[in-house]
Design brief:
Layout lengths: L47 H6 L15 H4 E9 L3 E8 L11 E7 L6 H16 L9 E6 L3 E7 L6 H6 L6 H20 L2 E2 L8 E3 L8 E3 L6 E2 L18 H4 L6 H16 L14 H10 L14 H10 L10 H5 L2 H5 L14 H4 L1 H9 L3 H13 L3 H13 L9 H10 L6 H11 L9 H8 L2 H4 L5 H12 L9 H7 L6 H11 L9 H9 L13 H4 L10 H4 L27 H4 L15
Antiparallel strand pairs: 1-2, 2-3, 3-5, 4-5, 6-9, 7-8
Pfam family, one: EF-hand_8
Keywords: ATP-binding, Kinase, Nucleotide-binding, Serine/threonine-protein kinase, Transferase
InterPro entries: CDPK_Ser/Thr_kinases, EF-hand-dom_pair, EF_hand_dom, Kinase-like_dom_sf, Prot_kinase_dom, Protein_kinase_ATP_BS, Ser/Thr_kinase_AS
Length: 607
C-alpha cells in the first residue's frame, strides 16, 4: 500500500525529505517464495508482484553507488530519526566537491530495512525520480548517492525553514493572497511531476519545505518515496498515500495523475480552514477506514465557519480540485489558470504599467525547464542554437549582454546571480549553483552564451524556422560517427562531453529509439528533439518583487562592489486578508502518516 512511513505530523524536522523508512512487508512470506533470485533485480522483465516475493539479504544489495561518503563528509547534527532511516546535517570535507557548503543534509537508509527485491527497486526508483525532477528550484535537490556495506546515503539540499504543516499548526497568519501564492507553488510542482509522467501520491503540507527561516522563503516539494511513473492513460491500483489526502479513486484502486490534484485540493482546504475536509474531532478512536468511508460518501462542507468569510473564487477553485469524479476534476494546468491563483501571482515591478517583454520575465523559468532535459537533448539543442541566426537569437544576445555587465566570456555562479538580479530576479546562492550545473551543457563549470541561448530560446517557435530541419540534419550527421544513417552508442560516447558509460549511452539511445533497435534514425531524432519540450510556465519565475528578502544577503556580489545593485524593494504585500488561518487541530497520528506500500489493509472491496 504506502511504501514507507512518513514523519509524523508533530515532527519538527528541518530535513529536506520525510523521515520515511523502507518498510517491512505486511505479509509473512514462506521460504519457498524466496527462491529464484534474479541476476538483475532492476530488470523490467521482473514483475513487481514477483519482486515482492523474493527476499534479499543486505549483503546482496549493491546499487553501484560511490563508497567514500565518510571520506568526503562529516556528520554534524541529527535532524530526525525514523525506524529505518535517519537524517543528518553534514559538513563537506576538503576532498568533497561541495567543500565550503553549509546547506547539505543526508538521508541514511539501513540496508537491513530492504527486505525484498521490490524494496530495493522502490528505493532506486525514488532516487531516480528525484534526480529526474531536480532541474526545478522548487524541488528538493539530490546531489549524490553513496552506499556502504550496511547503508545507503542520499546527499540532498538542506531546507532549514520547516514544513508547511508546522507553519499552519502554529497559526501563522496566512492571508488569502498568501494562500493563493503558496497554492500556485504547489500546483506548479505537481504539474512539473505530471509533465514528466510522474505521480507523487503523497501531496500534503508536511511534504513542502521552506528553504530557510527567512520570511517569504521559497517552498520546495520533497519526499518522493511513494512516487511512481504514470502516463495520463495509465490506471494504477495500489492504495498509496496519506489517509486524509487520498482521492476517492485511489481508495477504489483505479486512479491516475488527477489523484494528485485531489490532494492539492485538500491542501488548499487546509490552508483556508486549518483542517482537512474529512477530519473529525474523535478520529483517534477510529480506523482510517472510517476516513476512507467519508471520502467516498460524504459531501465536502463549504458552509460552516470559516467558509462564509472566504471569497467565492477560493471556494470555486477548492470545489473544482475536490471534485469526486476525476473525469470532471480540473488538471493542475487548468487550476493554475484559475482567477484566484492568478490574482495571487507576483509580478515584476517593471511590468506594472509598462510593456516589459514577457520573455524576459521567463528567463529563470526557461533555465529550469532546460535543466530538466537529458544531456543528450541539451547537447543537440546547444549545437542547433550555435548555428541559428534569427531575430529571436539577436534578442537573446541583447539579454545576455545586459546581464553580462562585466563582459565575461563565461559566467560563474556569482556572475549569473548578479546578472539575474539586474534583470529583476532573486535566486539563492546554492540554487544558482545548482541551476548553472543543470544548464552547463559542455561541463565547463560555467555558463557561456551558447549555454544560455540553448536554454532561453523558445524551441517551439524555433521549430517553425525554415532552417530548423536543415540544422537537425547537420547535427544528426555529426552524431552519426559511423556514417551508417543511425546514431549509435559509439556516436554518443564520442560526441557527448565527459565520460559516458555503456549503460548511460544505452539509456540515452532508448529515449529516442521508438523501434527498440538500439540505434536512432533521423525520423526518431527529429521527433525526440521536439517531443516533450514542455512549458516554462510551470516553473517559478523567482521575481525579486517576491523573493528579494527571502535569502541571506550575498557578500560576494560584484554588483555591490560596483554600486550597480538594484534598489531594494519590499516584498509584495498587496492584497488584504479576509481572515487569518486558525491553528491546525490535533489529529490522529495514523491519519497523518503515509500508508506503506505493503501494509495489509483488509476488505478494501467493500469500498
Amino acid at each position: 500500500m504506502g511504501k514507507s512511513q512518513s514523519k509524523s505530523s508533530g515532527g519538527g524536522s528541518t530535513f529536506v525529505s520525510g523521515l520515511r523508512s523502507r518498510t517491512k512487508s505486511g505479509k509473512k512470506e514462506s521460504s519457498s517464495e524466496s527462491t529464484g533470485f534474479p541476476s538483475d533485480i532492476f530488470s523490467e522483465n521482473l514483475s513487481n508482484d514477483r519482486a515482492k516475493k523474493i527476499k534479499i539479504d543486505p549483503s546482496q544489495i549493491d546499487f553501484g553507488f560511490q563508497r567514500q561518503f565518510h571520506d568526503e563528509y562529516e556528520v554534524t547534527k541529527l535532524l530526525g530519526k525514523g525506524a529505518f532511516a535517519s537524517a543528518y546535517q553534514v559538513s563537506p570535507r576538503e576532498t568533497s566537491r561541495f567543500y565550503g557548503r553549509y546547506d547539505l543534509a543526508v538521508k541514511v537508509i539501513s540496508k537491513t530495512s530492504l527486505k525484498t527485491v521490490q524494496d530495493v527497486r522502490w528505493l532506486k526508483q525514488e532516487i531516480d525520480i528525484m534526480k529526474l525532477v531536480g532541474g526545478s528550484i522548487n524541488m528538493v535537490h539530490v546531489y549524490d548517492c553513496y552506499e556502504s556495506k550496511n547503508h545507503v546515503y542520499i546527499l540532498m539540499e538542506l531546507c532549514s525553514g520547516g514544513n508547511l504543516f508546522e507553519k499552519i499548526s502554529k497559526g501563522d497568519p496566512y492571508t488569502e493572497k498568501m494562500a493563493a501564492v503558496l497554492m500556485g507553488d504547489i500546483l506548479r510542482v505537481a504539474e512539473q511531476c505530471h509533465s514528466r509522467g510522474i505521480i507523487h501520491r503523497d501531496i500534503k503540507p508536511e511534504n513542502f519545505l521552506f528553504g530557510n527561516k527567512l520570511m517569504g522563503a521559497p517552498l520546495k516539494m520533497t519526499d518522493f518515496g511513494l512516487a511512481d511513473y504514470c502516463k495520463p492513460t495509465t490506471k494504477l491500483m495500489e492504495i498509496s498515500g496519506t489517509p486524509y489526502y487520498i482521492a476517492p479513486e485511489v481508495i477504489r484502486q483505479n486512479y491516475s495523475l488527477k489523484a494528485d490534484v485531489w490532494s492539492c485540493g485538500v491542501v488548499l482546504y487546509v490552508l483556508l480552514t486549518g483542517k482537512t475536509p474529512f477530519h473529525r474531532e474523535d478520529d483517534r478512536k477510529h480506523s482510517y477506514k472510517v476516513v476512507f468511508r467519508r471520502i467516498l460518501e460524504d459531501t465536502v462542507d463549504f458552509t460552516r465557519d470559516p467558509w462564509p468569510n472566504i471569497s467565492e473564487d477560493a471556494k470555486d477553485l477548492c470545489r473544482k480540485l475536490l471534485c469526486k469524479n476525476p473525469a470532471k476534476r480540473v488538471t493542475a494546468v487548468e487550476a493554475l489558470q484559475h482567477p484566484w491563483i492568478k490574482q495571487g501571482m507576483v509580478h515584476s515591478k517593471e511590468t506594472e504599467g509598462s510593456s516589459r517583454n514577457p520573455k524576459i520575465d521567463a528567463i529563470v523559468q526557461r533555465l529550469q525547464l532546460f535543466g530538466t532535459y537529458s544531456k543528450f537533448k541539451q547537447v543537440v539543442l546547444y549545437r542547433i542554437a550555435k548555428e541559428l541566426a534569427t531575430p529571436e537569437m539577436e534578442e537573446v544576445k541583447a539579454q545576455w549582454d545586459k546581464m553580462n555587465f562585466g563582459n565575461v566570456a563565461e559566467m560563474g555562479t556569482i556572475r549569473l546571480l548578479d546578472g539575474l538580479e539586474l534583470e529583476g530576479f532573486t535566486v539563492g546562492e546554492a540554487e544558482g549553483s545548482d541551476l548553472l550545473k543543470a544548464v552547463d551543457v559542455m561541463g565547463t563549470g560555467k555558463m557561456t552564451f551558447e549555454d544560455y541561448a540553448a536554454a532561453i530560446l523558445d524551441w517551439r517557435e524555433i521549430t517553425k524556422d525554415k532552417r530548423y530541419y536543415h540544422l537537425c540534419r547537420q547535427v544528426f550527421e555529426d552524431f552519426d560517427r559511423e556514417k551508417c544513417g543511425f546514431i549509435t552508442k559509439r556516436g554518443l560516447k564520442e560526441v557527448l562531453p565527459g565520460p559516458l558509460s555503456d549503460k548511460d549511452a544505452k539509456k540515452m539511445i532508448s529515449e529516442a529509439d521508438t523501434k527498440g533497435s538500439g540505434k536512432i534514425d533521423f525520423k526518431d531524432f527529429v521527433f525526440f528533439i521536439q517531443e516533450k519540450l514542455g512549458s516554462a510556465d510551470m516553473f517559478d519565475k523567482r521575481l525579486s518583487s517576491r523573493y528579494r528578502n527571502s535569502f541571506p544577503k550575498r557578500t560576494n556580489s560584484f554588483l555591490r562592489k560596483l554600486n550597480l545593485l538594484p534598489k531594494d524593494a519590499a516584498p509584495d504585500s498587496s492584497g488584504d486578508s479576509k481572515r487569518s488561518i486558525s491553528p491546525m487541530p490535533p489529529s490522529g497520528e495514523d491519519f497523518n502518516r503515509s500508508l506503506r506500500r505493503d501494509e495489509e489493509i483488509e476488505h478494501f472491496k467493500e469500498f
